[in-house]
Each structure stands twice: as structure tokens, then as C-alpha cells.
Specification:
Length: 201
């Protein structure tokens, strides 16, 4: 009996620990870019090290994209090996509806991410404001007239689409952590960015 309890605890730990690590990977990117961007804004150290603000933003962008690739890889690794929600969607109509919604989320999320990147341009898509690279005026056209922070919420929609298509309960948890990390990032970024543009005026 004691051995059985010990074995159960070991299995639970082995299963929970990797998911906890995956959750940490989901949230590390917004923490990274906010920490680096604020450090740059206060010290200009990244720009000095790289030989200019545009090179500094490019280096930051490389870090952000690398962490994003890691996040997506870890997300796929967990979601593709988990279909625990499949028994709830065994009916053909439900399965088709799930797949249809997943594709809609893919398409809408990708549209929001790509169009917002186009509107902001490369440098301002990667925290260029903190490096002194400012837009001439606030972007109010699509997709920013649909929702605030479309790049973030579009990304969440893409991950949610992956989760639905795989019928993964772990995917729902990881997507929730991604959404939470973006929500927290927005709470820090919006007032700080607004203050940067007020100082310019």
C-alpha cells in the first residue's frame, strides 16, 4: 500500500512538473521583452551596445522571435500528445463544428497579427517606442479599430485554434496562461507607452 502511494505520487509529479514548466515557457516572452525594453528606455544600453536604436530593436526582435519559436514548439509538443477532450466531441457534427471554429480562429488570428504588424511597421512592432523610434501619429485603422492590442489577441486566437483542432485540455490551460501573460503585459505597457508619447509632445 505504501509503495502504491509512493508510485502514484511519482507519476503525478512527473506529469504535473512538465506542464508547470510548459506554463512557464508560455509566459516568459512578454516578461522578457518588457524587461529589456524598460531597461533600454532608462539606460539606452542596448542601443549603445548595438550601435544604434534600430540595431537594438532588431536584436530584441530576434530574441522575441526565438522565444516565440520555443513557445510554439513546446505548445505543439504538449497539445499534439493530448486529445483528452476528444470523447466529448465524438459526434460528427460536433467534430466538424470544432474544426470549422479552429480554422476561423486560425484565419482571424493570423489576420490580426499580420495586419497589426504591417500597420505598426517592423520597429514599432518590436517595442521600438522604448528605443526612441516613435510613430508620427496613433494608428486607428484596421485592425486597431476592431480591438486594442490585436497582435496579442490574434496570437491567443491562433493558439486556441490549435487547441480546438487537437481537442486538448492541456492546450486550453496553456492558452489561458498565454492570454493571462498578455493581459498583464498590456496593463504595464499601455500606460508606459502613453507616457512616452506625452513626453514627446
Amino acid at each position: 500500500k505504501i509503495y502504491s502511494c509512493f508510485l502514484f505520487e511519482r507519476v503525478s509529479t512527473v506529469m504535473v512538473l512538465p506542464v508547470a514548466v510548459a506554463c512557464a515557457v508560455m509566459v516568459i516572452n512578454p516578461l522578457f521583452w518588457n524587461a529589456v525594453s524598460r531597461f533600454e528606455y532608462r539606460t539606452r544600453s542596448v542601443s549603445k551596445m548595438c550601435g544604434g536604436p534600430k540595431r537594438g530593436v532588431t536584436l530584441l526582435a530576434m530574441g522575441i522571435l526565438s522565444l516565440n519559436c520555443l513557445r510554439t514548439y513546446v505548445f505543439h509538443a504538449f497539445v499534439d500528445s493530448d486529445s483528452s477532450l476528444e470523447p466529448l466531441l465524438y459526434d460528427v457534427p460536433l467534430e466538424k463544428a470544432r474544426d470549422g471554429l479552429a480554422y476561423v480562429l486560425y484565419a482571424a488570428g493570423t489576420l490580426l497579427v499580420v495586419s497589426s504588424s504591417y500597420r505598426l511597421g517592423f520597429f514599432c512592432s518590436f517595442m521600438g517606442d522604448y528605443f526612441g523610434i516613435l510613430l508620427d501619429e496613433k494608428v486607428t485603422g484596421f485592425p486597431f479599430n476592431v480591438c486594442n492590442n490585436p497582435m496579442y489577441w490574434g496570437s491567443v486566437m491562433i493558439y486556441l485554434g490549435m487547441t480546438l483542432q487537437a481537442a486538448s485540455s492541456v492546450g486550453l490551460l496553456l492558452t489561458a496562461f498565454i492570454a493571462l501573460s498578455y493581459w498583464i503585459a498590456i496593463k504595464f505597457e499601455e500606460p508606459f507607452t502613453a507616457a512616452i508619447y506625452r513626453q514627446r509632445q
